[in-house]
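Submission sheet (multi-component)
Chains listed below:
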Amino acid sequence: MALLITRGMTKRFGGLVAVRALDLKVEERAIHSVIGPNGAGKTTVFNCITGFYRPEEGEIWFAGQRVDGLRPDEIAHLGIARTYQNIRLFANMTALENVLVGLHRHLRSSWVGALLGSPAVRREERWAHEEARRLLEFVGLGGRAHLLARHLPYGEQRKLELARALATRPRLLLLDEPTAGMNPAETQEVIQFIRRLRDELGITILLIEHHMRVVMTISDRVTVLDYGEKISEGSPEQVQDDPRVIEAYLGTRKVAAEALG
Amino acid sequence: MWRAGLVFGALIWFVSLAGLVEALHARWVVDGVVSAGQVLLWGVVVASGWVGARRAPGALVSRLGWGLFSGATAGFCLGLLAWLGGQVDLRSVFINASPVLFQLLSAGLQPPQAWLAAVLAGSVLGLVGAAGAVAPKGLVRPLLAGLGAGVSLGMFQELVLLVLQPEGLAAVREWLFVASGGPTAHGVGAVALASAAAAALRPALSAGGRTVGLSFRAGRVLWIVVGIALLALLPVAGGPFVAQVLVLVGLYTLMGLGLNLEVGLAGLLDLGFVAFFAIGAYTVGLLTSVGQHGIAHWSFWAAVPVAVLVSLVAGVILGIPVLGIRGDYLAIATLGFGEIVRLLVLSDALRPWLGGSQGVLSIPKPVLGGWELSGPQHLYYLTVVASAVVAYVAWRLQESRLGRAWMAIREDEDVAEALGINLVSVKLLAYGLGAAFAGVGGAIFAVMVGSVFPHSFQLLISIQVLALIIVGGMGSIPGVVVGSAVLIGLPELLREFGEFRFLVYGAALVAMMLLRPEGLLPAAAQRRELHAEESGSALQPWAVGAGGGA
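Outcome: structure written.
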């Protein structure tokens, strides 16, 4: 059974229909891409899945449980994590602290316990710090633990955002344009990294991406949105050859044919 | 850089016409020779030279030149004001533009010579400032320390005299001060020299400490011990007045620590914070009073936990309706809450229980083992212990999972929620625990004054608490103490310049936000310092598959 299913999901803003009756199925351990021109509603889909927006119609199911209408923190507890198109780190906290916040849901200690400094709390804190350091090491930020997030260079901020998302130990990770603003070498690195997440950690990936090369290289399945509607779905090859996709990206068929020449 | 002189010239006009210079002129820094007013004027001119030289690019000579020019400009402005005072009657607009002021500004000279003298003196002082800007730090720091200590002796002379009150210290007293009160020249010189020497020797001393085997940690412990001893001895040496001021600093520290949880850590701007202070005070008042409004005649010690609990609940109750409000809107909503509480206790409807504007009277002093904590000196120790306990609690909270969650919602509420943080519980805990801290302060306030009435809980207190945590450094616990000492303690100690208190206060806040917006002791810097030792350690590379199983 699919890990994430949306059925007839619709999100409106005033008169604008941002997402229209979207049916989406993300298989367990898949790398699934959502593509489409600017303003196609891709990020809105992410916001609906993570509970930040509440879709007006339709259902969202995650791991056999209905999640639309739950609060974002409840959905996070079920095992969905995300990154953001425009990086959203806790800028005035250190890299280590950013990851520690990601671990929040795995820690049990109450504030009373923290006041008393009970052995259980101390043990948990020590574990959390070790775990956070491992995660930083995993994304290649080993030496950066005590730098403020805002002092990190752009590429490392992206990595830190990933480490923070991984700290929640998600089953499903939503990545919103993870290669935005990166050069080819860095992009290649990200592709490798996303593969490792799936292959080694068994995380299912739902990906918004603009670099077509990235999409075509790593996706198992691609969904194409245009004006909030799904216009095509399938393997990268199938989608690539779909005339509707070409039309959506390049305008009319004639222009498209010329462009592809 | 050319503007520095004009900016500081304008500052001279401002402090002169506001009356600050004349007020300070009444106080000798060196008896019969130099007044604090003169020191202020000279200091501003020196500062203009310093800033002018700092801003100037290029070689040493050009920087010194710019400093000289800035000083001359500032001197020119000063001379202009002195000249203007002789020509026009400024007094109809600026009531402080008195003959004494112009006598001081023109140094007793006639207009043309006075103006020339001001420009010349300004140039010299500007050059001094510029020299300070280009000279090595190791040289400037002791000089500044010496000057600061020398001036402080004059500014805080009542305090120093108070400490030197005992008969055994009469010789020191007479050596440092003339009979009428002003410091003697050799006294100021000696104090300045001693401070300068201490500042100069400090690096050598700490290096020396390390060579004889005092580690960084041991050094820190030593400082803490010295600090505790000082805290314990201060009220004994300073007498009731100093103790009273310190109690006030302590009460604001307690409130500051509470508001720091809300604003500094969780980013929830609260302008009605005084409400919780009031609730703590009223709870203790009602529970312990032996007057007509007393309901239980409890002891202070039994009432404090109840006061803390009631404040905590009040904090949560405030928090519930404002949960969904952010930023500026939150500030306004909480402002309303603070006023509601003040107006409620003032209201006629609740007068039978809370005493209306008369308040709750006859609150007995706390008794500890048959010993009544009556005077400010006794309450001082109570306040210090309470502040220490609350600061410890605040520190533990800050370092905990909850503290991180607070910082996360301060930085980005949406992202924090998407990471699994329950905004409702985390925010309500911030409001509740912050309010509980203020409740402790209120409880001590009630027994300090011996009565509680609505007038003690003005909006101004909320604003001062907010100002002190901003000046101290948002989210920083030592910052709260420093902010409280600077914004509450200093003005109290300099009471006779009380009318200028909010003038200086306001100017200091503006300057602070322009020059050092992160506060005096910012949290971020502290955190880096604390972790400086461990970040160098080698890290184990992580085998990727291992951690991912769970």
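Remark: Chain B has 23 helices and four strands.
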